[in-house]
Design brief:
Elements (H helix, E strand, L loop, with lengths): L2 E4 L12 H11 L9 E5 H7 L3 E3 L7 H10 L3 H9 L1 E8 L2 E6 L4 E3 L28 E3 L5 H16 L4 E8 L8 E8 L5 E2 L15 E2 L1 H13 L8 E5 L24
Parallel strand pairs: 2-8
Antiparallel strand pairs: 1-12, 2-12, 3-7, 4-5, 5-6, 8-9, 10-11
Helix pairs in contact: 1-5, 3-4
Length: 264
């Protein structure tokens, strides 16, 4: 049976924080002992913060191209400059939105750049990470390489515990066919992204012909429900009972090839 448990005692994360150490402490506080086959799902924001991906917009000089695109989309040209820097290609635009192919290969809105739950310091009494800034001038970028971030964290945790684990880094994305955002995988280590059931029998013993399960995204969506989207403060979820064997994989398993993507 799949069981999801939000970990407690997670502090506000800042640059260079040791996420592995924080997770192990949170597991102790939540009375959760890690075991073979467990998976830890992390909200992208805490990974980005630990990796120092917070940017002060006062330090960004927009290019003429960014200014032109900002005017067309009614966005801050400094944010647009960051979106362009984080992207391989701009796919669609409308006022308030720029849909891109991120440098990591997936399609997302505004290159995943976000202001929500971002503040310049972990506490009002402490100096901000960028002196002379305010909350409205700070934005957070996605990790540079979310697969690499997931693997690095997985390796540290496995070394500390001696158990085999899976790691997901997730973010909230929209979908081509539906309204609303859902949790989706942007980084993965030690667990399957895609589970291929082609050739397996269905209930009536017919062989499945096209069924491939986006298992990582299914787990990401479930964990996102536990994390919430506002002020819940639960950015790490522990999962036990994942119904498929753990194995090595990468985000590429979940990214549809361009020639097969009818929305390009």
């Amino acid at each position: 049976m799949l069981t999801l448990t939000p970990l407690s005692e997670i502090p506000l994360i800042k640059k260079d924080d040791n996420l592995a150490k924080i997770i192990l402490h949170a597991c102790t506080q939540s009375k959760t002992q890690l075991a073979d086959g467990d998976i830890l799902i992390l909200a992208q924001k805490i990974v980005s913060k630990a990796e120092g991906r917070l940017v002060n917009l006062a330090d960004v000089e927009p290019s003429p191209h960014a200014c032109q695109l900002a005017e067309a989309t009614e966005k801050d040209p400094r944010v647009v400059e960051l979106i362009l820097a984080e992207s391989n290609e701009v796919l669609r635009t409308r006022p308030g939105l720029i849909v891109v192919e991120h440098k990591q290969g997936f399609i997302c809105a505004n290159a995943g750049i976000d202001r929500s739950n971002v503040r310049p310091s972990p506490h009002p009494s402490l100096p901000p990470e960028g002196e002379g800034t305010n909350e409205d001038e700070m934005v957070l970028l996605l990790p540079r390489d979310s697969d690499k971030s997931a693997k690095k964290l997985r390796d540290k945790l496995e070394k500390a515990t001696g158990v085999k684990l899976g790691i997901l880094i997730i973010d909230s994305h929209g979908r081509a066919w539906r309204n609303g955002t859902v949790g989706m995988t942007i980084g993965i280590a030690g667990m399957p992204g895609l589970v291929d059931l082609r050739g397996d029998a269905d209930l009536f013993r017919r062989a499945l012909k096209i069924t491939q399960v986006g298992a990582a995204d299914e787990l990401a969506g479930a964990a996102s429900l536990m994390m919430g989207q506002k002020d819940e403060g639960t950015p790490i979820v522990h999962a036990r009972g994942f119904p498929y064997p753990l194995r090595e994989s990468s985000l590429n398993e979940l990214i549809r090839e361009k020639e097969m993507d009818l929305f390009r």
